[in-house]
């Protein structure tokens, strides 16, 4: 576990950004189906939570770079560098989402433009997630350069997004829509996480470099993954059974904590090919 703690800034950035994008996907689906003005007003207020998480994630990423100026410098290689592509697409998603929220809250968003803006932001968010995932598929890091990485990242999008969506959408006093699928999609994602964890546990035994075995990088892998799955199970029970904001908010926090445990383990598994560790 300690091996991945040095990348806490990236842990916060990836998990919070993935949660925000996941929420935006569900939020857009609901908004495009059509809702009343009172319902929209409540949802736009709830959208601020997702933007706040995204902002916290970007602040954490800046601490990883060491200086905000480095973030601007990293944009010099957009198109040829996955990191530059990730930062550019992430900044574009944040800008589009933030401007939409501001215009909607102020009542300045034209109805005809609203749905188009939402869909465009969704597409940019998907590109953002794709770039983030591809950034870690490094040929020199065998513990990351596999399908497990993609499953882990995209499942966090589903878990975090569904948890936050249920907390915001299902507690709307003016609710005139149905989001019955989100809780069960969350449960399905938890089951997928369990399968991925088991598959990864068996696969680590076969990954090694000239000087290091992958299984030795995270000796507490099994214990921490069991803790993670237990947290997700508790959150799933809350999401399926309760409808009160305090308990659903707790489910969101538990989900974020569980995924951060998994992400710390992910960074702890960093291992380069050849003679380097």
TrEMBL record:
Keyword Nucleotidyltransferase set for record: no
One example GO MF annotation: dimethyl sulfoxide reductase activity
Record keywords: Membrane, Transmembrane, Transmembrane helix
UniProt record, GO biological process: anaerobic electron transport chain
Keyword Transmembrane: yes
GO cellular component: dimethyl sulfoxide reductase complex; plasma membrane
Ranges that cross the membrane: 12-34, 46-67, 87-106, 113-131, 151-171, 183-202, 222-240, 247-269
UniProt-listed InterPro entries: DmsC
Name assigned to this protein: Anaerobic dimethyl sulfoxide reductase chain C
Organism expressing this protein natively: Actinobacillus pleuropneumoniae serovar 6 str. Femo
Lineage: Bacteria, Pseudomonadati, Pseudomonadota, Gammaproteobacteria, Pasteurellales
């Amino acid at each position: 576990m300690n091996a991945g703690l040095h990348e806490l800034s990236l842990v916060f950035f990836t998990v919070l950004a993935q949660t925000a994008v996941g929420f935006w996907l569900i939020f857009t689906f609901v908004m495009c189906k059509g809702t009343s003005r009172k319902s929209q007003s409540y949802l736009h207020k709830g959208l601020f939570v997702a933007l706040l998480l995204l902002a916290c994630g970007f602040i954490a990423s800046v601490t990883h770079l060491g200086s905000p100026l480095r973030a601007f410098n990293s944009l010099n290689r957009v198109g040829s560098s996955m990191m530059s592509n990730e930062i550019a697409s992430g900044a574009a998603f944040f800008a589009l989402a933030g401007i939409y929220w501001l215009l909607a809250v102020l009542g300045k968003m034209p109805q005809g433009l609203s749905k188009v803006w939402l869909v465009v932001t969704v597409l940019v968010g998907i590109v953002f997630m794709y770039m983030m995932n591809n950034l870690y598929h490094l040929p020199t890091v065998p513990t990351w350069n596999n399908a497990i990485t993609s499953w882990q990242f995209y499942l966090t999008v589903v878990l975090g997004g569904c948890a936050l969506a249920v907390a915001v959408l299902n507690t709307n006093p003016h609710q005139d829509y149905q989001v019955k699928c989100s809780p069960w999609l969350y449960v399905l994602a938890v089951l997928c996480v369990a399968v991925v964890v088991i598959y990864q546990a068996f696969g680590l035994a076969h990954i090694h470099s000239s000087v290091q075995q992958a299984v030795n990088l995270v000796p507490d892998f099994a214990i921490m993954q069991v803790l993670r799955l237990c947290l997700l199970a508790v959150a799933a029970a809350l999401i399926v059974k309760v409808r009160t904001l305090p308990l659903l908010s707790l489910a969101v926090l538990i989900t974020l904590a569980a995924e951060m445990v998994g992400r710390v383990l992910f960074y702890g598994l960093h291992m380069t090919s050849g003679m380097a560790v």
